[in-house]
């Protein structure tokens, strides 16, 4: 298995993975809109025999402008529950620690994302349509520039609300 930063030629494979993983096109459409708007900060894929089998996308936050948003992440259904997504997220977060943005927000299962260092309490000071028990923040660098404020995702996310 190969894990790496996504390349332009991975776009169709990533789209296929997201549609199959979620059983609908919404998340794949979100990534297409983020890409068209120039809001993808980074994305990573897992490949088997040069075929994309998993992917994770990080987009720029409008506010705070020092943060990213992790969403979506998907693994082909036949390969789920084999830690591929876990490995991919760990590799991606390690790569992002060397970048210019010191924090990452996520909306997801707290137990799952907690194992990567995402903390619901750390996100609690940020007003967001996603605020609540599934909205978490991970510091890639410490200290973060702020512990409260507004958390506003890229405009493409509005279509999912």
Textual characterization of the structure:
The protein has helices at about 10-20, 25-35, 85-95, 110-115, 120-125; strands at about 1-5, 40-50, 50-60, 65-75, 105, 125, 135-140, 150. With about 160 residues, it is α/β, with parallel strands linked by helices. The protein has one domain: Aminopeptidase (3-Layer(aba) Sandwich), CATH 3.40.630. It has a six-stranded mixed beta sheet. A two-stranded parallel ribbon has the order 6-8. β4 (about 65-75), α3 and β5 (about 105) form a beta-alpha-beta unit. α1 (about 10-20) runs antiparallel to α2 (about 25-35). The longest helix is centred in the middle third of the chain and has 13 residues, at about 85-95. The protein is globular, with a radius of gyration of 15 Å. It starts with a strand and ends in an 11-residue tail after the last strand.
What key phrases describe this protein's structure?
single chain, 161 residues, six-stranded mixed beta sheet, two-stranded parallel ribbon, 8 strands, 29% helix, 29% strand, globular
Q: How many runs of DSSP E, i.e. beta strands?
A: 8
Number of helices: 5
Shape: globular
The CATH class is Alpha Beta
Structural class: alpha/beta
CATH architecture level-2 label: 3-Layer(aba) Sandwich
List the helices and strands and how they pair.
Elements: E1 2-5, H1 11-22, H2 26-37, E2 40-48, E3 51-60, E4 67-75, H3 84-96, E5 103-107, H4 110-114, H5 120-123, E6 126-127, E7 135-139, E8 149-150
Parallel strand pairs: 4-5, 6-8
Antiparallel strand pairs: 1-2, 2-3, 3-4, 5-7
Helix pairs in contact: 1-2
